[in-house]
Amino acid sequence: HGPASRHVDWASKPRGKDDRTAAGKGFDFRFDQRAGVSWTLGPSGQPARSQSPSNAVELQVCAGCHARREQFSDNAIDVRRYYDAFRTARLEPRLYYPDGQQRDEVFDHGSFLQSKMHAAGVTCSDCHNPHSGKLRETGNGVCAQCHPADRFDVPAHHHHASGSAGAKCAACHMPTTVYMGVDARHDHSIRIPRPDRSQSMASPNACAHCHSDKPAAWASETLKKWYQSPKGGAQTFADAFDLGDRGAPGAQEALIRVAEDASLSGLVRASAVARLARFPSPRVLRVIASLLQANDPEVRSAAIAAMAGLDATLRKDLLAPLLRDATRLVRMDAARELSGDAEAKLSPEDRQHFDNALAEYIAAQSFNAERPEALANLADLHRRRGMLEAARNELLEALAVDRSFIPAAIGLADLERAKGDERAAEDVLRRSLANNPKSGPLLHALGLGLVRQKRMDEAIASLAEAAKVAPENARFSYVFAVATHGKGNHTEAIDILKRALDRHPYDRDILTALISYQIEAREIRAALAHAELLLRLEPERSDLGQLIANLRRRL
């Protein structure tokens, strides 16, 4: 509600002597999304809100604590506006399964934004007492506020004995995951169980919580028997995210459909944009550029980040208007991506807005300066702006805070390399490796430095170790193979790429190198198969069509 001192003043006055409106009670703002609202059954039998929410203040204030997020301000007014104080963690693989179910501890907000309840206008206080945090009703009663018990709280719907664990609404629609051994967190995406997705994308399903001895296929078949026309649920983005996470054919088109779907929450669309950035093409760029004007700040922020690799002039043209955005999150993201080469191209008017937004970004990192990540962000900003000594100081401070923080060590080594001192860069990396001996990124960076020093045997050994300890990183295996090929070990390089392709079957760099090396080794049929797969992944590439035609003629 904002600062409470005036509320205390109001509460201490005798009844009838209040000189403020009773509605305000001395608070700067109140949560009135539920005022005068009723829920009725619509024509489809689903509950419908009598009026759309006029704002999202309640949800966003709750999210300040009940979200996996980065905070960059504790000012009460900023916190109320949410995007002036917070950045929500997106639906990325380390935090969520492809269908949006919680994987790591993500609290509630990111899950709830995926739900049909959120889309229908349900707020936190529809289910929870905002002061006690307790449910407004016990058991299935909280759901029965909107979903009639005579239709949903019966065996004909849930197919379990009344009063049993399987008859609880939350058991099927809000299963729990235990974090830190103590906290059973309900998944607030409030989803329809989809054991078929356990089969196709290895996501959990609520059925397995009770029927742990049964496979997902059994649960899928059981649901088909129970429901002749089963509903797919609100998480329609699941297949697109699964394709995107695997880099599989069709990922671009599927992710574009999610990113452009205004019926989905901004967080879901932003998560699609973040995945789209991995598959650059002229069409993807056009789509992302159009989303810089999206209504939701989550989407605008994700689109800004996706502009990172563009030409400085194009970035200036696309991002300068966002320096005036209504939300601090978007303004400072735009300033970060414009810093360096693009900022020199700004008009005097845009430059003033840039300076203001950049100050907000620096203040946001300073707010979190006890964390090495924030210091590394400041270092990256200084490096982009040519302030190399300032960047060096921030990285040294990050390592002082956490000597095992790998990005700071790699950044510091890069600064030494930029000065032409490869030996100093090597020393930085080796000191960090003493604290992180199994770090793939450090071993990979060291290997690249040794390549530049033309110490090829040592370099290949380091690159090989990086690929070994971090097989999940396709880039490490690709570079190891290229270095091996460069040393003249052509057959070994092909074998490295084949093993890497087994782990990463749709990696574009691995496929490209494998095609080249197999043509060189006259393995034409194998090269053709890989070229045809690459064309399925990148159908806009006309050069691949020509290559495939040439390979077919050589068979």
What report would you give on this structure?
This protein is mostly helical and 555 residues long. 55% of the residues lie in helices and 4% in strands. It contains 32 helices and six strands. Helix 14 crosses helix 15 (251-259), helix 22 packs antiparallel against helix 23 and helix 29 (490-503) packs antiparallel against helix 30 (508-520).
Q: Which descriptors apply to this entry?
A:
single chain, 555 residues, mainly alpha, two-stranded antiparallel ribbon
Please tell me the overall pLDDT: 94
Anisotropy-based shape: globular
Strand order of the largest sheet: 1-2
Distance between the termini: 74 Å
Structural class: mainly alpha
Low-confidence stretches at least 5 residues in length (pLDDT < 50)? none
Give a count of the beta strands, DSSP E runs of length 2 or more.
6
Please work out how many helical segments DSSP would assign.
32
State the helicity in percent bands.
Answer: 55-70%
In this structure, how is the largest beta sheet organized?
2 strands, antiparallel
Gyration radius, in Å: 27 Å
Percent in strands: under 5%
Secondary structure: elements and pairs:
Blueprint: H1 5-12, E1 39-41, E2 47-49, H2 57-63, E3 69-71, H3 76-81, E4 86-88, H4 109-112, H5 116-120, H6 124-127, H7 141-144, H8 149-152, H9 155-158, H10 169-173, E5 176-179, E6 183-186, H11 195-201, H12 207-210, H13 216-226, H14 238-246, H15 251-259, H16 266-276, H17 282-290, H18 297-305, H19 312-319, H20 328-338, H21 348-367, H22 372-384, H23 388-401, H24 406-418, H25 422-435, H26 440-452, H27 456-469, H28 474-486, H29 490-503, H30 508-520, H31 524-537, H32 542-554
Antiparallel strand pairs: 1-2, 3-4, 5-6
